[in-house]
Amino acid sequence: MQPYELSLAAAADAIRARTLSPVELVDSVLDRVEKVEPSLGAYATVTAEEARRSAREAEHDIAAGHGPHGSLHGVPMGLKDLIDVAGTATTAGSRVRAAHRAEADSTVAARLTAAGAILVGKTHTHEFAYGLTTPQTKNAWDRDRVAGGSAGGSAVAVAAGAATFALGTDTGGSIRVPAALNGVVGLKPTYGLVPRHGVTSLSWSLDHVGPITRTVEDAALVLTALAGHDPRDPASLATAVTDYRPGADTDLTGLRVGVPRNYYFDHVAPEIETAVRHAIGHLESLGARLVEVEIPMTRYIQATHWGLMVPEATAYHERTLRTVPELYQADVRVLLEAGELMPAGDHLRAQRARTLMRQDWARLLKEADVIAAPTVPATAVPSGQSTLTWPDGTVEGVSDAYVRLSAPANITGVPSLSVPVGHDTDGLPIGMQLLGRPFGEPVLLRVGHAYERTRPARPVATV
């Protein structure tokens, strides 16, 4: 196994044991970037020189007996190109930001650096995170298919071994969708758990920052470094949990897994339903008890999500939309302009609907400890495909389909973890989504880790 193929946990352990040096790991990942980047396009910027210098410093510290300094010491990462790193461009995938360079680190970048992680580069995003495909980037398993978005670059980099882990942002599924489509793990934490200071916003009341990794254990390691209050983010919340790493025990006896009888399995590809139900059955074999649950207020999900996101996004872009509208891509510009036409009453009604939805989900999550469901209703579609047609004749836009099953967690703020659970007959990855109570990340990670430890290991994508 090459160093770039190692999970974060395995790489960190090897560095601590001095059987692998940070220089060897970073060189291996950068060599992999050089090999796969021309065909995949995961990165907006590769900071190879800075990464190698940081790796040499990390190795020197260890040799001098001064390290490792943190749990991620010497581990290479990619950051979605919405996340500020001092002195590095944050373009948000847009010509509007072509000349922008960050003056200071975002909170998450500073915390990861303090934990010892090394930046390999900034990963591509759909322009300003306002889309579900990331058109600059190709799927890690099939270059003729979409990567998913908006954190497509981060997911593809991790899936292809071009980063040991990465960060994404998630406003309606932008971590979990590309994670599912590329066969990696994606965690959208509880709203407010991970600070967003220094991260370009799409919709402030729906935005989350979280990890994309190869394993659930890796996601827990990154979350441990990220979580914690930051007064510069008005939504930031404190938590008593200081270590999210799950234990080795795979016994789920007593855990109640909610299986939706509505919504999450409606208009879902048969192979996805089969794979996810098989994975749920595996959780039952580990001791979990399955309980049927009814998802509340499903007819209002799409309207509530759009009623919150669209006007908030337009408000953020108000000045540049009026001064340099021609610099936006057409698909994003039309959404931003549509937001200018949305009445304030619609936004207020969406906020009220969200309050009711949160209350109903709190009641739902008293019936089950976690909800298990598909992450997305279809695997990665061919690039350029704009719609999906379901067996009953219903035609659905690709972006609408990809966001449909992930948006409820953004509206309610509950944590959601996407875990790979197999491939379809075309070899494309399938993801299962685990949703839990607010600040219930330890339970989600325990369940996902138990599933993962009792299934065959997943390889790096062979591109």
From TrEMBL:
Q: Fetch the InterPro entries from UniProt.
A: Amidase, Amidase_dom, AS_sf
Q: Which SUPFAM superfamilies match?
A: Amidase signature (AS) enzymes (SSF75304)
User: Where, if anywhere, are coiled coils annotated?
Assistant: none
Q: What is this protein called?
A: Amidase
- Listed Gene3D superfamilies: Amidase signature (AS) domain
Any one Pfam family here would be Amidase
Source domain of life: Bacteria
Its source organism is Streptomyces hebeiensis
The Amidase domain covers which part of the protein? 24-445
